[in-house]
Protein: UDP-glucose 6-dehydrogenase
Amino acid sequence: MEKLAVIGIGRLGLCFALNAEKSGYEVIGIDVNQEYVNQLNAKTYSSPEPLVNEYLSASCNFSSYTDIKVIEQEQVNIIYIIVPTPSQHDNSFSHSYIESVVSQLMELKKPEELKHIIIGATVMPGYCNELSVKMKDWNYSISYNPEFIAQGSIMRDQQNPDQILIGEGHPDATIFLKNLYARMCISSPEYHVMDTLSAEITKLATNCFLTMKISFANSIGDLIKRTGGDEDKVLSAIGADSRIGSKYLGYGYGFGGPCFPRDNQALLYFAKEQKMTLPLSEATIEVNKNHLQFQYEQLLRENREEFVFDYVTYKKNTDIIEQSQQLELAVKLANTGKKVILKNSNHIKHSIELMYPGLFYYE
Ligand SMILES: NC(=O)C1=CN([C@@H]2O[C@H](COP(=O)(O)OP(=O)(O)OC[C@H]3O[C@@H](n4cnc5c(N)ncnc54)[C@H](O)[C@@H]3O)[C@@H](O)[C@H]2O)C=CC1
Ligand SMILES: O=C(O)[C@H]1O[C@H](OP(=O)(O)OP(=O)(O)OC[C@H]2O[C@@H](n3ccc(=O)[nH]c3=O)[C@H](O)[C@@H]2O)[C@H](O)[C@@H](O)[C@@H]1O
Structure:
């Protein structure tokens, strides 16, 4: 049975590990969080992500550890890294968690046979090349394989990708990934194999394009709200043109969450470093802000004293409030003195109360 190590078995890494296990691999999970690792091994961990709990309890060839030495002991040749890459003040991503993993790998014995590191975390363009240089005498290749998955459907999205993006560090790593996805995917994805820099840019640019589409739809929708007309019918007709497509072209709240806003900002940072500008991405962010203000003024014009929000997470069925446009709108209304009731928010009430004590009513 082929072995694979996944370092960083959080939201994304755990799903990837479980999908790989279900596809016939022996998967070794490594994470710094001892209590979490214990729960995974005891199969007592409970995830809000669909399918995770079922896959975890059915798994036979997935075990988790905190000590990276297991890679040496188990002679694992494929090492997938999916640790956090948080945004920094300047909007670039920090690679410090990856660096910490890499330092630990470099403390192990230098492998006699070439091993393959595959970065699944979102990184700044150019990072995999930097890492290759850093590890050049250590017998590791560095590839990039980001995933296009959405919170709330991570397992299914991993099984049904439109495309597999591979920034190739070594042809053997690509062969491994192609075999893995051939077993894991229900869909028949296109494979896009390229150098790591191109793949790093592709990951960010895809999210930039999607947000540009959302901002376009919301700005046309705002115009129609002002002039009269039916924004849903208009956007649905535009999306029916197969050159455009209807996905991410609906009218609603602005985009938010832990991925879209930061990927936009990171690509802008990268462009700035190259002394370039990306006016479309700048406008996308601006439109998202203006749309929030438009929605706020629109609601104020309704002259109501009370507003009810069905959910204030950045999208339905998650527990994430990071960069939630809905929550920002609710805050703006409540700060104007309106009574704002948040429904379905018991699971996030504590976090909201910490940030905005006493501002909302809950149902
Ligand atoms: N969650 C998602 O939907 C998506 C996430 N990504 C990217 O994937 C990466 C990871 O994201 P998430 O899974 O959401 O993060 P997460 O925070 O849920 O999981 C990261 C895990 O890494 C562990 N970790 C941290 N340092 C470690 C170390 N030195 N050794 C071993 N484990 C360590 C943490 O304990 C945690 O369990 C980020 O770069 C993110 O941008 C990309 C696409 C989608
Ligand atoms: O790079 C990432 O980390 C991931 O970011 C997003 O995943 P996610 O943020 O979980 O979820 P989406 O469902 O795409 O929603 C993102 C934001 O866009 C908004 N959105 C989405 C769709 C839409 O039609 N309109 C719209 O405003 C959502 O409400 C939300 O605020 C992408 O969808 C994934 O492909 C990508 O891998």
